[in-house]
Amino acid sequence: MNIFRKLEFSQEWLDLGIIDSEKLHRIESEWNASDDNNTEHYRWRAFLAFMQSQAFLDPIIAKRLYELGASDPDSTMGGSMMASVLRRKDCPVELLHVAAKSEEKFLSKIAAEKLAETSI
Questions:
Q1: pLDDT digit string (tens) for 20-46?
Q2: Where are the alpha helices (DSSP H) in 54-104?
Q3: Closest to 68 (Cα-Cα) out of 19, 32, 21
């Protein structure tokens, strides 16, 4: 679990099923074989693989993923995580309303555009 702390994963990554012991072992192998020391790159790949594997996001899971992005140690990557959740077709309208009020202009813009699409 040293790699877990080194790459700045949190318990929420496990709880949401983004990573598990098998995935963490693969990530550790990648880390050891690479000279890429950017921890966010490994979290991003794990997040992206998880998102691509989900045909549908439960609204509660979508909210938790959005919050996970908000709490990521790297604000740029965390913002990308949040934006990924917002851009999904199954993003809950309630979450779009929350994001529309975000102080992060790029998030509020994505949310406003999605909300405009839903009212057509």
A1: 999 999 999 999 999 999 999 999 999
A2: 59-70, 75-87, 93-100
A3: 19
pLDDT tens-digit profile of 54-98? 999 999 999 999 999 999 999 999 999 999 999 999 999 999 999
The answer to whether 99 touches 108, Cβ cutoff 8 Å, is: yes
State how far the Cα of 109 lies from the Cα of 107, in Å rounded to an integer. Answer: 5
Rounded CA Rg of the chain: 15
Q: Which domain holds residue 50?
A: 2-118
8 Å CB contact between 18 and 46: yes
Compute φ and ψ for 104, nearest 5 degrees.
Answer: -80, 110
> How many domains are contained in the chain?
1
Task: Check if the beta carbon of residue 52 is closer than 8 Å to that of residue 84.
Answer: no
pTM: 0.93
Provide the 8-state DSSP code for 39. Answer: H
